[in-house]
Specification:
This protein is of the alpha+beta class and about 425 residues long. The chain has three domains: about 120 residues, PAS domain (Beta-Lactamase, 2-Layer Sandwich); about 120 residues, PAS domain (Beta-Lactamase, 2-Layer Sandwich); about 150 residues, Alpha-Beta Plaits. The chain has 15 helices and 15 strands. The strands form three sheets. The chain has a five-stranded antiparallel sheet with strand order 2-1-5-4-3, with helices on both faces. Strands 7-6-10-9-8 form a five-stranded antiparallel sheet, with helices on both faces. The chain is rod-shaped, with a radius of gyration of 45 Å.
């Protein structure tokens, strides 16, 4: 089909329009340019009409960025079939030295009586508004990063150079401003070990399809120890460059506070388990160990053990005749004696004059010998008026479901021994 043309006067009138417009003849063979306006030439960087028509004659889509051509053609075919008008946004392909522009074009298809289909296209330059929005956005992001307490940075994956960072990261790198960091690598900022550490973390992040979150202990550029909660993730920028984004929250002081709190809590817990009079563990500590052993018994992983219950005879008599200070000293001496015999077992004071030991390992294997010495000491003490300590011991067996059953047998044997010592 022969290309459509306007009368000379109509052609000239269209060409003199200052608004960017173009009219195309749409055929089955393709799209041919009919007329372009003066505003069209200025928008796309053509020096004159001759240059514009010559360029457009070879390819009417030459004004469209190559990456957007297929999308424009698809949209055009879709709306041409529907005999409608459409609006589309795309990048220009400038013919001068100016940067590509972001355009919004509105197209209306006109079906002539002779079967000719003309596409009337109006062009609007959206670059100014978009650029301003980008500038405003960049300023907002910069302000956000600058005021973020967390350190933020981005790196180029191939060169490992820092592309951007906020002031918090610049401070960590001991640079006055973020500009002092941009373009440098880790080796140019930190010591070799720290730089290699960062690179290994980068590799882990790049190998993951989700953010890599971890804690790390690394020094700053001045060598001061720091602890961070770090998040790293990969992304591709608008140019197709693979980059790495990092967000580091300095938790050094928080972790130190947590450590100190933990130490204080542990100390307070230890103090809560210490008997103030004797310095050994108290009933609270015994109950806690009892629960742990019960858990092991339920799981069937508890080793053999023995419980020995002690009662110091004549404490009431000493308190009544010599005073409570003498009674306290009597209890401390009894405690020292029991601890010297049970060197490898925890000893607990569970009452005024009651003690208990839980023996495993070496003390369990030698329990009979240990108790024999205490029994012999009781005989001598009865003759000389020394300290007498009644005791009862029982071993854990397969029939026992918990520590309490072993304790009850040992406690019963202790009272039997106490009565025997009083009779003799």
């Amino acid at each position: 089909m022969e290309n459509f043309t306007f009368d000379k006067d109509i052609q000239t009138a269209y060409e003199q329009l200052l608004h960017p417009i173009a009219i195309f003849h749409v055929t089955e063979e393709g799209v041919k340019t009919v007329v372009v306006s003066r505003g069209f030439c200025e928008l796309f960087g053509y020096a004159d009409f001759e240059q514009a028509y010559k360029d457009m004659e070879n390819d009417s889509f030459t004004i469209v960025h190559p990456d957007d051509v297929n999308r424009i053609k698809t949209e055009m075919r879709r709306f041409l079939t529907a005999e409608g008008r459409y609006e589309v946004i795309y990048r220009s392909n400038q013919k001068d030295e100016t940067p590509n522009k972001l355009l919004r074009s509105e197209t209306k298809f006109v079906h002539m009586d002779n079967g000719v289909v003309l596409a009337h296209v109006w062009y609007m330059d959206e670059s100014t508004d978009v650029n301003q929005k980008i500038i405003d956005l960049a300023q907002s992001v910069t302000a956000l990063l600058t005021n973020m307490p967390a350190m933020t940075f981005s790196k180029d994956v191939l060169t490992r150079k820092y592309l951007a960072c906020n002031q918090a990261f610049a401070d960590y790198a001991h640079k006055e401003t973020p500009d002092g960091v941009v373009g440098l690598t880790d080796f140019e900022i930190f010591d070799e070990d720290t730089a290699l550490h960062f690179i290994e973390d980068d590799k882990k992040a790049l190998a993951m399809d989700k953010p890599y979150i971890f804690y790390e202990d690394v020094p700053d550029a001045a060598g001061n120890p720091r602890r961070f909660q770090t998040t790293k993730l990969k992304f591709v920028d608008t140019t197709g460059k693979e980059c790495l984004l990092g967000l580091c929250q300095d938790v050094t002081e928080a972790m130190q506070i947590k450590k100190e709190y933990g130490e204080k809590l542990a100390y307070a817990n230890d103090q809560a388990q210490i008997d103030a009079l004797t310095g050994i563990r108290n009933k609270y500590a015994y109950n806690e160990l009892e629960q742990k052993i019960n858990d092991r018994i339920k799981k069937g992983i508890q080793d053999k053990f023995a419980i020995t219950v002690f009662d110091v005879n004549d404490l009431k008599k000493i308190n009544d005749t010599l005073g409570h200070q003498a009674g306290d000293e009597y209890i401390r001496n009894a405690c020292k004696y029991i601890c010297t015999k049970f060197r490898h077992s925890p000893v607990f004071r569970i009452g005024g004059d009651e003690f208990v030991t839980i023996s495993e390992g070496e003390d369990y294997e030698n329990i009979d010998e240990i108790l024999f010495f205490i029994s012999e000491n009781n005989k001598d003490a009865k003759r000389t008026g020394g300290m007498v300590i009644a005791f009862g011991m029982s071993s854990f067996s397969d029939n026992d479901e918990d520590v309490a059953s072993v304790f009850m047998r040992a406690d019963k044997l202790m009272y039997e021994n106490k009565n025997e010592l009083k009779k003799s």
